[in-house]
Amino acid sequence: MRKLSLCLAILALAFCTVSSCKKNGEPNAPVGEIAISKLRIKINEPDSMLLVGADSTKTVTWVVNPAGFDTLRTVKNAARIKFTKAGNYTISAKNNNITSKSIVITVIDSVYAPPVYFIPFDKGEQITFVPQYVKSATSDSAYLAFTVSTQKKYCTNFMFTYSIYMPYPLHDKYYINFIGASIKSFDNTACTGTAVLTGHYNYASYQPVLKEGTYGFYAGFGQDIDHDYVGSMEVTATQIIFHWDDSTGIIISPKVLAR
Fold it and tell me: Which residue of 118, 159, 230, 251 sits 20 to 30 Å from the alpha carbon of 109, by its own alpha carbon?
């Protein structure tokens, strides 16, 4: 099975619960009132609301005034709202026998830029692959490891993601795909600086003992096994030699290792 060094899980934001609403909203609203993540937002910025204590089996009716400038999505007693125009908006909610007090959201005249969680690598990137031969001093284990790095700089809260693979049962080909830059934590989306990305891994789980012979070596960009760049790796009793012609997209250096 193809082994991913790091899982990519990026996409939907969940509806806010009372305990997770942010401090600049009203996180501790009493039963029958609206808890909200923010009372001051930007144009197109999503905001999460909850009618506290509402019967989740009954429909919650949300009233927004002025109407016509909002997009509202609801799940049980929660809602997610965003606005297309700056201004002040009054919101109330009804559910069964509950009618909330109104709250006011202020939408400032600035357009929201959603945080970026993943940047795919493409052929405009240049990857440097630095191979290493790792031999155990206490066992027969001897395998290929590597360090990879990007040429471009990314936010320091991102990490290098890639996948490796060797076909079973022959283990006669080495594959590596460079996937992209992924955010390390959803709790830290602010970009406070940039740097090249690096990663380190090995093929020990596929081939714990590197045997003499010639192996295909395939590298590419993207999540699927790709053959953008093709070469070979020759293993002798004393050396590991990479036969690799590319010098612009994926660079292997050094190309000769001592065993």
Answer: 118
CA angle 84/81/99 to nearest 5° reads: 125
For β-strands 40-43 and 103-111, DSSP reports them as: parallel
Q: What is the pTM of this model?
A: 0.69
Residue 83 to residue 105: CA distance in whole angstroms: 10
Q: Check pLDDT > 70 for residue 14.
A: no
Residue 206: phi and psi, rounded to 5, are -90, -40
Q: What is the CA radius of gyration of the chain?
A: 27
Distances (CA, A) of 6 to 48, 99, 127, 135, 178: 30, 47, 18, 25, 11
**Considering the domain 18-111 in this protein, what is its CATH number?**
2.60.40.10
Q: Where are the domains of the chain?
A: 18-111, 117-258
